[in-house]
Specification:
Blueprint: E1 2-4, E2 7-9, H1 21-34, E3 43-44, H2 47-54, H3 58-70, E4 74-77, E5 81-84, H4 89-113, H5 118-135
Antiparallel strand pairs: 1-2, 3-5, 4-5
Helix pairs in contact: 1-3, 1-4, 2-3
């Protein structure tokens, strides 16, 4: 967990994961930004502070910030630090929907390989959604 002023960010790192630490930081910050948990203009901790709080190297956090800045999700302002960018709704939706669409495309390919029809796949999806709704 990382504190930003009065806000605690739910960022955790796993040394056992096969995903590099900078990608773990990047993906968690990206999710917080595109889900609007972090609003535009929210100041982020300095690279050094984030590294210290997470127990990783400055190089690791710098890489995550650089990648997020290249995506247009954060801005670093000379002398003012790093803040969350004002992300257009279209970009926000791309980040939210993209991974889900890729997963669904993979599931469709697996269903085709297994010989399932579109209707059988729709029925399976409806059953899964119904079960999920009844559990929540």
């Amino acid at each position: 967990m990382v504190r930003i002023g009065d806000t605690t960010l739910p960022i955790t790192l796993s040394l056992e994961a096969s995903t590099p630490l900078y990608e773990q930081i990047e993906s968690q910050l990206r999710q917080l930004i595109v889900s609007s948990v972090l609003a535009a203009g929210t100041p982020l901790p300095s690279v050094r502070m984030l590294a210290s709080n997470l127990g990783c190297s400055v190089i690791t956090t710098r890489r995550a910030y650089q990648d997020l800045e290249q995506e247009g999700l954060i801005h670093t302002l000379q002398g003012r630090g790093t803040i969350v960018a004002d992300v257009p709704e279209e970009i926000r939706l791309q980040h939210q929907h993209g991974p889900i669409e890729r997963s669904l495309q993979s599931a469709i390919a697996q269903a085709r390989a297994a010989g399932l029809s579109h209707q059988e796949l729709r029925t399976m999806l409806e059953q899964i959604l119904t079960e999920e709704e009844s559990q929540s």
